[in-house]
Amino acid sequence: MIISYQGVDSFKISQGNLTIALNPQAKTSADITLFSTGRSETAEKSGFIIDGPGEYEIKDIFIKGFLSEAKDRINTIYLITFEGMKLCFLGALANAELKAETLEALEDIDILFIPVGTLDPAKAYKLAVSLEPSVVIPMHYNKAELDQFVKEGGTKAVPIDKFVVKKKDLEGKEGEIVVLKEE
């Protein structure tokens, strides 16, 4: 699996010839496109589009969407089961207090995408730790917010171009912060 960062809260996840786009900021070609805060004009010709809560199965990928809060609109948290890994995309989440039923469903997360700037870096780190992912990928931040988030984790993170990962690579990892460079 290859994860690349398109900026703000936008990612592209590829495995073989299958691509998932998360909150694409520009026109993109993907088999599955997820929007956490509603559909965008960029969604045209983007394969199967999901823009809200529910349960979906597309091409052996299982997706569950959970309703949550963004600053001035509704946000959907997505739990994506793909290639034997669970990816949790928090979108534009604005409240670190998640509903009990959402917390219960977000178990055994391998990779967590967390908005550092919309939550506040300290609250974002506390939420990330509570969800116990193997890897944490910060998003939606400025440099100061990212620096504070990484500092909360007590580590240093060197940005990388792409995150290439297999399930076996995650064994023994607990909350490792992976910072991706914007493409």
Number of helices: 4
- What order do the SSEs take from the amino end to the carboxyl end, as H and E? EEEEEEEEEHEHHEHEE
Query: What oligomeric state do these chains adopt?
Result: single chain
CATH architecture tag: 4-Layer Sandwich
CATH fold field value: Metallo-beta-lactamase, Chain A
Distance between the termini: 17 Å
Major pleated sheet: 7 strands, mixed
CATH class: Alpha Beta
Give helix % range: 10-25%
Corresponding CATH superfamily: Ribonuclease Z/Hydroxyacylglutathione hydrolase-like
Uncertain runs are none
- The total domain count is 1
- Per the principal axes of the C-alpha atoms, what is the gross shape? globular
Radius of gyration: 15 Å
The strand order across the widest sheet is 6-7-8-9-10-11-13
Please state the structural category: alpha/beta
Pfam families: Lactamase_B_3
InterPro entries: RibonucZ/Hydroxyglut_hydro
Protein name: Zn-dependent hydrolase
Description:
It contains four helices and 13 strands. It has one domain (2-177): 4-Layer Sandwich (Metallo-beta-lactamase, Chain A), CATH 3.60.15.10. It has 183 residues and is of the alpha/beta class. 17% of the residues lie in helices and 36% in strands. The chain has helices at 100-105, 116-119, 121-131, 143-152, and strands spanning 2-7, 10-15, 18-22, 32-34, 48-50, 54-58, 61-69, 74-82, 85-89, 111-115, 135-139, 162-164, 176-177. The model has no long low-confidence stretch (mean pLDDT 92).
